[in-house]
Amino acid sequence: MRGKLEGRKRSKNSDRDTTMRLPTLVPCLDVKDAQFDGVVVVTDSISKLTGNLECLKAPLEKYGKVDSALEKDVVLVQTDVVPSGRLIFSPTGPLNRDQDDVRSFADAGVKGIKRALQAGCKAPLFVRPIDDSFPKAGLVGTLGALQALYVPLEVREAAPAKASKADKLGIWCNNEDRVNNGIIINNALENGRLVTRDIGGSDPERMAAPRVLEYVQEAFKDTCIKVSVVLDKAVIEKEYPLMAAVNRSASFVDRHQARLIYLDYDGEGDTDKTVFLVGKGITYDTGGADIKAGGVMAGMHRDKCGAAAVGGFFKILSVLKPKGLKARGAMVMVRNSVGSECYVADEIITSRAGVRVRVGNTDAEGRMVMADVLCKFKEEAVKAVKPHIFTIATLTGHAIRAMGPEYSIIMDNGPAKQLRTAQNIQETGEEYGDPFEISTIRREDYEFVAGKSEYEDILQCNNLPSSATPRGHQCPAAFMIMAAGVNKHGKDSENPIPYSHIDIAGSSGPFPGVPTGAPIVALAATFVLPRC
User: Fold this and answer.
1) Quick one: pLDDT at residue 221?
2) Helix, strand, or coil (residue 515)
């Protein structure tokens, strides 16, 4: 039985309006529009400034005669051609090499807007000349510009005067209908990324589990998203025993107690697709009894970026309201604390699915907290219309070691693989600048988590860091499949359920730095935008 929805509590800053208002996105067909105080041009070559952008070419060519950095670095040119006098050229660099992709536009958008802010702009006009390099270059470039305008939640609360970097952002296009449609999509995606960044990036006290719930309730107030929560300790212990083990130590501190937040969206019309999302929300990961030593604990407030992404995805749903889609999300908010009550290695805990799990390392808590919710969604998916379950987590250092610091990794079970889920999301992510790499869950991964004695059914983890473990980001996916009983719904079953695990340890963003919002742009482009 689910606990009652906890009432909204006022935080110490709740008397302030700290909601970040995105800069108003304003369509513009004329670069000489006087309402803007700077023009930021993003492209690879000034030769592409044609049509009603032709007027920008002469001052840039003149500047290029005295500074060879033009088309190599961001430059600011003073010119009377635009009312503000500020013309900023932010080059993408080459676009036609094997290694070039649409992210060049996002990178240039970030750099160009940052330069405009340095120059004192509060209402820049973003210009991306039309070309055929990449179909979504304009949208991706605008997302880059918006990334540069984000103000962290804690800054907004501590210094409300700094809550906004710009009042508005002009979006140039040679077709008004086209730019208006793009603005709607950019606005929705950026609202989702804002929620993701706010939850994922804020410190472990500001976004402790109870305060995440408070934030989520406010974010979805008066929207089409239903918010409910499990917070009763007895209910968690009974229905989510693996999650309860991780929560055990933190449960004795009121402000750190776990919250299992459910989000529900039911699109207009007949449902033809059901998406389930489980997000890892470790508000702080000390490592537990297997303490993170040697200075590697810093940054572990970012271990909630998977749950943050679930919240961000539902924010996009609340804005775009896609038809025919049903979505069910879980933000599993737990602190992995260390203390006299913390769970320890060697414990054997029976999961919701009735699987006896031996704990191998308390620092592998993420796969634990998601497994029981994955089991619950598996139970619901059997009756759902065309279900697909995803887990999203900053799960392993091995993901960064294997694929680098900018890429989400997706792994399919058998039914998902038959649908080519990983390939479809990878292709969409490539188009929208939210790239994925594909990994495969293999027999070695199932063998790795198999019980090593007659005491347990499966092993949660070995005693090495994931980065030092062969196939260190694939084994956790196999663990969750086994611990949640998803293996009973493989391609050989009467009720196959597609399941994909997404590891965002690399793609969630740098620390120190601002979270990226990955992977919600790719997920929205796959499941939401085609329905809008």
Assistant:
1) 97
2) coil
* pLDDT tens profile 476-521: 999 999 999 999 999 999 999 999 999 999 999 999 999 999 999 9
Contact (CB, 8 A) for 139 and 179: no
DSSP state at residue 87: E
pLDDT at 411 over 90: yes
The model's pTM: 0.96
Query: In this predicted structure, what is the pLDDT of residue 277?
Result: 99
321 shares a domain with 284: yes
Task: Compute CA distances 116 → 38, 53, 139, 172, 186, whole Å.
Answer: 7, 19, 19, 16, 20
Give dist(CA 40, CA 522) in Å, integer: 26
| Distances in whole angstroms, Cα of residue 222 to Cα of each of 218, 226, 507 | 9, 9, 31
Rounded distance between C-alpha atoms, residue 43 and residue 60, angstroms: 13
Q: 336 and 412: one domain? A: yes
In angstroms, what is the C-alpha Rg of the chain? 24
Q: What is the pLDDT of residue 22?
A: 86
pLDDT at 20 over 80: no
Rounded Cα distance between 363 and 361, Å, is 5
pLDDT for 130 equals 87
**236 lies in the same domain as 136:** no
Helices (H), 151-222: 153-158, 176-201, 209-219
User: Do 426 and 319 share a domain, yes or no?
Assistant: yes
Residue 16 lies in a domain: no
Decide if 387 is inside a domain: yes
Is 478 among the domain residues? Answer: no
Query: Helices marked H in 100-175 — which ranges?
Result: 103-118, 137-149, 153-158
Strand bridging mode 348-350 / 86-91: unpaired
Structure tokens at 45: 């070559």
Residues involved in catalysis: 292, 367
Residue for token pair 């090593």: 452
Quote the domain boundaries for residue 334: 202-340+364-448+495-531
187: Cα separation from own chain's centroid:
16
Residue finishing a domain among 154, 174, 194? 174
Q: Quick one: 155 and 255 in the same domain?
A: no
Q: Is residue 458 a contact partner of residue 357, using CB atoms and an 8 Å limit?
A: yes
Q: Residue 174: which pLDDT band, with cuts at 50, 70 and 90?
A: confident
Domain presence at residue 487: no
CATH of the domain at 307: 3.40.630.10
CA distance 159 to 177: 38
Beta bridge partners of 388: 275
Contact 334, 249 (CB under 8 A): no
Q: Residue 63 maps to which CATH number? A: 3.40.220.10
